[in-house]
Amino acid sequence: MPRFSDTEKKMIRQKLMQEGERLFTSFGIKKVSIDEIVRAAGIAKGSFYSFYPSKEHLYMDIAGNLQTKMWREMDEFLDENRSLPPRELCRQCFLWMFQALKRYPMLKQADGETAEHLYRKLPREVIEAHTKDDSCELIRLQEYGVHFTCGIETAAKTLQTLAVSFLNLQQDDSSDQQAVMRIILDGVLKEIISDESD
C-alpha cells in the first residue's frame, strides 16, 4: 500500500473527486471505470484503493460534497423566505433545490437507474449514512417552524424518492412535466408536513 504525506493525500483525494465528477457527469457511473479515473487523476490503480474501495464510494463522496454545497446555498433561501407557512416553505425549498441542480450536473443527471446501481453496489451502511445526512438537513428545517408528521428518517427517504422521481421526469419533455411535479410534490408535502407554525 502506498504511503502518502498528509499534503499528498489531500491533493490526490481532491484530484480523484475533481476527475471523478467530470467523468461521472460526462458518462454516468456505470460507464466509467476505475482505470479511467486513475488515468485522469494521474495515479496508480493501487493508489485509488488507498482512498476508496470502489468507484461507487467515490461517487457517493462527490455527491455528498455537492449536496452539502447546495444545502449551504439553500440557507440563504430559507432565511429570505422564513415568513412562509411551513408547508409552502418546504415546497418552495424543494423547487429551489431542483432548479439549483442546474449548477450541479452530476447530481442533476442522477436518476432511478443510478440510484438502483448504487443501492446494489454499496454496503447498506453507506446508503444509511447518506440518508442520515439528509435527515440532518431536515432537522434544520425545524428551526424554520417546519414540523414533520412522520419520523425524520421516513421524511428523508420519502423526499429522496421524490427527488429521484423528479430526476426521472426530466426525461419527459411533455408540456405537463411541471404540473405533474407540482401535483406529486404537493401531495407528498401534505402527507409529511404539518401546516401549523410554532
TrEMBL record:
Pfam families: TetR_N. GO terms for molecular function: DNA binding. Residues 10-70 form the HTH tetR-type domain. Residues 33-52 bind DNA. Keywords: DNA-binding. SUPFAM superfamilies: Homeodomain-like (SSF46689). This is TetR/AcrR family transcriptional regulator.
